[in-house]
Amino acid sequence: MGQFRMTDLRNIARRLVAGGKGLLAMDESNATCNKRFAAAGIPQTEDARRAYRELIITAPGLSETISGTILYDETIRQTKKDGTPFVKILVDSGIIPGVKVDVGAKDLAGHPGEKITEGLDGLRERLKGYFQMGARFAKWRAVIAVGDGIPSRGCIEANAQALARYASLCQETGLVPIVEPEVLMDGEHTQRQCRVVTEEVLHNVFDQLYAQRVMLEGMILKPNMVLAGLTCHRQDNLDEVAEATVECLLRVVPASVPGIAFLSGGQSGELASARLNAMNLLARSPKFRLPWALAFSFARAIQHPALDVWHGQDANVPAAQQALLHRAKCNLAALNGEYSAAMEKT
Questions:
Q1: Whether residue 134 has pLDDT greater than 70
Q2: Is the peptide bond before 97 cis (omega within 30 degrees of 0)?
Q3: What is the C-alpha separation between 101 and 99, in angstroms, rounded?
Q4: CA distances (Å), origin 152, targets 108, 117, 157, 158
Q5: What secondary structure letter does DSSP report for 255?
Q6: Domain 3-338, what architecture?
Q7: Which positions are catalytic?
Q8: Which contiguous run of DSSP H or E holds residue 70?
Q9: Residue 2's pLDDT band (cuts 50, 70, 90)
Q10: pLDDT tens-place string over residues 156-168
C-alpha cells in the first residue's frame, strides 16, 4: 500500500467521525426493505425503493448531521427520478458514499444457533467496482448471538477472521473498512454477559486485524452498546449502559482507531439517542479520556419515523424528510452531550 493511499484512508476515516457527525446506514437488503414496506402498506417494488432512498439522500441539510451513508448494491447504482446518480448527489452535498459488501449471515456448520457472515469470494473485484462507482468506504457485519453455550470460540474466531480479511481487502482497494462485530440484543442475557462476550469478540477481532496487517488508523469500528438482552428481567439505566460500554471499549480498542460509530441494533430512536448522549457526557468527565471519537451509524433509529410518515406518497415527502432530519439532529445533539427528552416534543 503506497504512502499516498495510506494518507487517503486516514483522512477519510477521520472525516467520517469528525465534526460531531455520524453515519446513516441505508444498506438494507431488498428483502429487508420490502418487509418494512409491506408492514407500512407500501408497494414492494424497485421504483418504490428508489423513491424512498431519494427521499433520504435529498433531505435538505442532511450533510449538517451526516458525514457518510452506507448504501446497498442496488442503491449505489440508482439515480434520482431526473437521472442524477445517487452517488453524485451525496458527493456534491459533502457526504461520503459507502457500501455494504457482505452477502449476509448464514448458518455456521457444526455450530447450531450460530452464524458466519459470507461474501469473501470475489470480494476484491467487487470492491474495485464499488471504488470506481465512487464509494470510499465499505461495511461488513458479523453477528454474534448470546445464549445457552454460545457464542462458541469457533464462531467468534471465524467471524473475526472474516472481518479482518474483508478489512485488508478494502484497504488494498482504497476503501476505509467499517468493521461491525455485533453482539445481538436478542435473548435474556444480562448486561454483564454482554460485556464479557463483547470484550472477547473485540479482542479476537483486533488480533485478526493485526494478523492481516490492517492499518488501524484507516478503519472505523462499528460495535454494539453493552446492553442486557431484550427479554432480560433487568434493563440497565442510561448511566449504567454508558459506563459499561465505555469501560469495555477502553479495555480492547487500540487508541490508533480514529472513531467508534455505534450501531443501534433494534433500539428505538429515542433510546439510542439517550444512550449515545450518556456516553458522550461520560467521555467529557474527568474519569475518562477517550482516545477515539464516539459517533453513530444508525439505520432504523434514524429512518423509521420517516418511513412511517411517507407511506409511499409523494405528497408526504417533505414531512418524511423533516422526521428524518429531526432524528439525525437528535443524534447530533447526543454527540455533544446536549440531547434531552424534551427535543422529542419539538
A1: yes
A2: no
A3: 6
A4: 11, 15, 9, 10
A5: T
A6: Alpha-Beta Barrel (3.20)
A7: 180, 222
A8: strand 66-71
A9: low
A10: 999 999 999 999 9
